[in-house]
């Protein structure tokens, strides 16, 4: 029951706004179409954007990958430098004679 009364109230508000400001009604209609088109994956909202944006996204991804590779190499190289080296073998008494 509540949903029906809320729907009626919203419809009355919408009719009042449409009669008072037709430009606003047209903008809201356009916005509603864009939102419903984006939800279905079609329409102008699904446009990925200008090529410049693709370039920026690609550059950002490349920089992040380079930074991650640098961090991994730093960790690996620092971990190998903390290993204790084996002491050199001491000559045996037979080899010293």
UniProtKB/TrEMBL annotation:
The chain crosses the membrane at residues 59-79. Pfam families: DUF3040. Residues 36-46 have a biased composition (Low complexity). Residues 1-53 are annotated as: Disordered. InterPro entries: DUF3040. Keywords: Membrane, Transmembrane, Transmembrane helix. This is DUF3040 domain-containing protein.
């Amino acid at each position: 029951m509540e949903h029906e009364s809320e729907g009626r109230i919203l419809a009355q508000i919408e009719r009042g706004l449409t009669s008072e400001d037709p430009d606003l009604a047209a903008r809201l209609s356009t916005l509603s179409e864009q939102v419903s088109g984006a939800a279905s994956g079609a329409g102008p909202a699904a446009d990925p954007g200008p090529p410049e944006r693709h370039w920026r996204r690609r550059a950002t991804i490349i920089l992040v990958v380079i930074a991650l590779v640098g961090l991994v190499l730093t960790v690996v190289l620092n971990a190998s430098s903390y290993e204790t080296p084996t002491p050199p073998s001491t000559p045996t008494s037979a080899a010293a004679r």
